[in-house]
Amino acid sequence: MTKRVAIIGAGPAGLTAAYLLGKAKQEVIVFEKDPKYVGGISRTESYKGYHFDIGGHRFFSKSKEVEDFWTEILGDEMLERPRSSRIYYNKKFFAYPLAAFEALRKLGIVESTLCVLSYLKAKMFPVKNPANFEDWVINQFGKRLFNIFFKTYTEKVWGIPCREISADWAAQRIKGLSLSSAIWNALFKPKQGGGNKDKVIKTLIDSFRYPKYGPGMMWETCRDKCKAMGVQVEMNCGVKDIHMADGKWTVHTTNGRTFDGFDHVLSSAPMREMIASVTPRFPEKAFSSSQHLGYRDFLTVVLICKDEDAFSDNWIYIHDPSVKVGRIQNFKSWSPYMVPDPNMACYGLEYFCFEGDGLWTSSDETLINLAKKEIEQIGLTKDSAVVDGYVVRQQKAYPVYDHSYKENVEDVREALKNYPGLYLVGRNGMHKYNNQDHSMMTAMLAAKNIIAGKELYDLWDVNEDAEYHEGGLRGAEKVSERLVPEKIK
Questions:
Q1: Which partner from 68, 218, 227, 270 sits 20 to 30 angstroms from 294, CA to CA?
Q2: pTM of the full predicted structure?
């Protein structure tokens, strides 16, 4: 039986669901508020022929279904790229993930000795059941290495002290990585093609796939294939509100249009905004909880420069508190096709902020001048090498993992049971710090439920297993076999 499905947001989750539902001959309409780009935060913007990501996106997944999906959409247009990233601290560059011996050597004998002693202390007297990011990382690396390699950058990203950030974020992003595992990896580098697949730490991968012209190429091609299957994609069409009555959903858009008769609504819009737009209104507890969810915004200052072989990393984390920039992307290292002139380079300096604060509201000229000053201060290129600049602002880039976020999300999740046909998917939709592939997994399971006409899979189990999130080999497992509880199989 054909279902009518509304999908809010044309990011990785929304377009993955649209593609799979379109293949299954369902009636699908996608609503995207951006007038030009699809892909959400995984889009690729362009300026004078230069292409650049909004944050940088590796195409690497343990899920076979995700890897196969990417191949089906782009095929040979996916490049295999080496991973290279470093940390800048105290006027020195350190490999990341941390190469233990190099890090200790560059820190000097005295500091490295203190770091090792601090690590041993953490192993002997760990914080039991660490609830915040600071305690979790100290347990893994010791307090001195936490202060050097984690504190400054993390607080730049989130804008709040590390003790106010939930340990869940650390467990997701760097699960299994510690000083001892970094040393072990340096001595006995795991082979990507063999051994125990659950013992490879995703943080330590040394290569990934990447579309020739950036991640937006994946989602633009996916959109085109969706449309060829009959999926309706409405651009420049935000959703004002959605209404449920008699088992059907109606969508009212920001441009005054009404679409009705939907059996299902899949939303990757920020949870805080989505819940506020639903009628009948959510119960007060769940509604209030949704409104207490926080988000972190950021902006990218793109600098087009003469290529002076300044650095070859994909990106560099900036841990120096003397500059505001948090991370620097080298788009030519992601793909040489991103830069049209081989004599030029294109760098993206990322500044984490809150919408409306001093950085966010600064003029583009002010931000470009700041970026030119800071990239020269760090020593990556000279102000004189910069020939042009461009600024991209990204709202709600990161769902904030503060101490109350989990309870707030759980309240919403519980209330959703009374709204049949409404699925929240993706990073902002579920308020989960998902990677692109995990956002896609939630959409895949939602599509399977809709096509089957029953709730076979629980989307919320995706990414709850932190060990899965950061471990495993490319394409090693199926979404439906690995992420669904035993009782559902």
A1: 218
A2: 0.89
